[in-house]
## 1
Amino acid sequence: MEQTEEKMEIDDVIHITDYTFEIDLIDKMFPRAKFVIAIDIEELDDVVTERTNIVIKNTYDCYCYAGVNKIADYFYISGERITNKFIINKLIEQGLSLNCNHCFIEGFDKESDCQFGICTGS
Ligand SMILES: [Zn+2]
């Protein structure tokens, strides 16, 4: 009988941290998101701007798109109270999808009075 070299590595301790719990919770809050939300759960309700109309610009200028001339996407957000959560829901609605190594949204960067960029990490 042939012996298989298959090794099973079993972690004797499974660490369930607050962090993974938080990621799960965020996943459940935004089940249709085609990107990963890496914003602290307490910051989701933070008001990003006092304005009621903003533009979120998504540039594809990371190394994944090096040599590819991908035009920036613009997402128009309007609402009475523009929070991180509000923007995320609008981006999902408008079909934002991050497919490269930088699919983690860490926040929104103010670029001008009414334009914000997406702060991404991997
Ligand atoms: Zn990338």
## 2
Amino acid sequence: MTAQRRPLPARPRKVPSTVRLLWRGVRGRCPACGARGQYRWLVNVSPSCHNCGLQFERIEGHFVGAVGMNTIMSLGILLISLLVSIAVTYPDFPVLKLMLANIAVAIAAPLVCYPLSRMLWTGIDIAMRPLGPDEVDWAVVLGSVNKWVGHTDMNTDSGNSE
Ligand SMILES: [Zn+2]
């Protein structure tokens, strides 16, 4: 189900900042409006936002960047896991237990990071290539920004909660 899109107002007051786009993305929310529920069971990511109508695959091949983000996030988690497990068990390293534990982390991290990396990459993409006038329901997107800073005069029926 795609939300009905309303066009960009002639003079928008605020659009989501880069920090907000990235913060929403890293939490697995729609970067444009902050709506939750963009994926189920980690690997089943919705093609568009149910709240503002943003198509997450903005251009063909868009999610190649998400694969890169997933790799970076997963390797970061694995590095932290390795360093913590070595620090906790120093100086007597139970090599087999450490290997098994970190192999489990290496398998789980990309699966857990997959939807987050897709949303984060979409946020990075929006920061680099701003949203077009017909790409989202601007009343929802601007309402999510204005609600955050205390403005309530935008007429929105958004269901997001940030
Ligand atoms: Zn959205």
## 3
Amino acid sequence: MKKIDLVKVKELYEIRKLTAKEIAKKYGCSITTILHRMKAAGIRVRSNAEAHAGGKSGENNGNYKHGNCVKDKKFYCIDCKILLKATRYRNDGKNRCLKCAGIYRSKKYTGSGIYNHTLERRKIIGLKSSAKFTPEFKERFRKTCERNGIWVPLDQLEPYEIYFREAEWIESMFKYATETELAFVNSKPRPKFARDHKYSRYSGFINNVPPILLRHPVNCQFITRAENTRKALSNKCSKDSITLQELITAIQEFKREWPEQGECMKIINQREDLLLIKGGDL
Ligand SMILES: [Zn+2]
């Protein structure tokens, strides 16, 4: 770290209008350090509005030097030497046009570029990687996943698949989406979303909950697909957004039209044991 000269900092900040971040970079220290020094030296920190007023082009640009700044500087592709329209920092910070970047990348991964492994070498790498998946390793992996509630045990897989299908939505469910969910689903560009069971099918299966309860509209929520994947890979407890008790209460309080409402109520009244199932600790 260079010695921080406060007079110089004052000049950089107030006259050359560099940002604290840019000054920190020059001195090789953190922004916090610079801000502390500035405060000690009585330099007033610009507000956000001031910082963005007037733009930072030409002489206002902190990197302005000899009648030039980064914006005016010309960049050429380092491979084919054509003039680049925009500054492109591609591949290890080198400027390349799109075409040359593509060629460079393909070379990098086919053994004639940076990763210069011979054919035999690559064969060995491949073999050693796949050798990891021994029967013992797979067995151990399955056990761990079963124990953590991520995978359904092998001998229960078939009944689970039937249950899984039975608990699937019987309608599109858009009718029952909340306003926020509809806004999310209809936003542009069209997001990747999924209809998720608040009380998960995994928990429903393990606890022997009739699938008809799980496909009730109160159990449906629209979430992003990424979130859905995250949920699927998480352990049992966090798979559920609500407890079974909350689900049952919500069904009982449901006032809108639903073809299976009567049937659901009948099951809830018959199966008192459902209320005794302990929900995951949420
Ligand atoms: Zn090029």
## 4
Amino acid sequence: MILQTFIADNSALRDLYEHTQQFVKKELIPQVKTIEQQASIPRALWAKLGEYGLLGLTSAAEYGGQALGYFAQVIAMEAISSASASVGLAYAAHTSLCIDQLSRYANQQQKDTYLRDLISGKKIGALAMSEIDAGSDVMQMQLTAQRKDDTYFLNGHKMWITNGPSADIFVVYAKVIDDPSSAMPQSNLTAFILESHFTGFERAPKLKKLGMCGSETGKLIFNNCPVPSSNILGEVHKARHLLLRGLDYERLVLAAGPVGIMQSALTSASSYTHQRKQFNQRIANFQLIQAKLADMYTALNSSRAYLYTLAQACDQGRLTYYDAASVLLYTSEQATKAALEAIQCMGAKGYLESSLVSRLLRDAKLYEIGAGTTEIRRILIARQLKYQYAHVRSSNTS
Ligand SMILES: Cc1cc2nc3c(=O)[nH]c(=O)nc-3n(C[C@H](O)[C@H](O)[C@H](O)COP(=O)(O)OP(=O)(O)OC[C@H]3O[C@@H](n4cnc5c(N)ncnc54)[C@H](O)[C@@H]3O)c2cc1C
């Protein structure tokens, strides 16, 4: 109902919603169990995402994109995540982290080379910033790039990279060493476009995780890996802004993942409690259970209202870093709560490792960690409030 209100006047978004639902029902739901068991998304599903036009929602039509914007991206992300949070996460890494960064910052030649295959689903994309010792403090990354003629040689590693084990195209953040004898400044970041067949590039076996098991996560290793200077995204030493702004868009789009999880938790809890009988009646007749369902419904729709409002603001060029942090903070914590409540509503059945709601809990927890932890998001919001307070105070005293 909330979404219908937001998209009532926009036929392109209504159409997108309809055919995303078709993709989910026809192509995704039949494969979810296999994807979770095999811990991998079939290449054919990426091609289907491409056929349904879901991979280039924020990209220009000349590269096969739909140019519909971030609200469209959020609608697709929520629908996919309500069927499979794992596929939703992989989808966000491919579209929002890789394709969207290339669409915004790549030059004409780079867009010509990379975007069409990513948007058609022929190639899989990823973005690599985190390292073992550079998580929350990502600016401490140690992957280096040293120039020799027209080539940069990358040395080091990246960790926790979604789609890392099978992606073909990576946006990789590194520090270019101009003078090997001097310390590297924190802000010295350069983004490179890397192809998986480049020599000296390797991947460690994919990681086994608590949740998001269908989405592949892995470590990347760079051993004197040559990247042509024509593959620099933006300018040398100037990628700090790309990384930080990219995180804002990433947080907005990722916030739709927990919303999809909440929808799935509510649907499961409602369906079970309206069928399960104890004390000779349906447990949904008990007011303590009704309160849980009502609270889950309210958290879901308040999350949606916040998310859709920010997605619209983003399409109007008004997404702030603190709102991006805030919406992911809110929806991720609400999703974990919703999954816990769904387990509670289902008792022992919900507690089974094989139950959908226990998978939702394991999947939801990731959203409190990835793209900046809940602690880091709170720090960003509090920093803005402190700034606003100081600003108001100084204008009152002047
Ligand atoms: C499944 C998965 C997929 C991922 N996908 C990607 C990807 O595609 N690309 C990519 O680049 N990265 C990816 N990441 C990495 C992710 O962004 C990092 O895990 C995240 O930034 C946190 O870093 P960390 O895990 O090293 O935790 P740490 O930074 O070590 O944090 C550990 C704890 O300390 C807290 N902490 C740290 N600093 C502070 C502080 N200043 N104040 C208060 N508390 C603090 C944290 O909040 C957390 O609770 C992924 C991670 C996971 C788990």
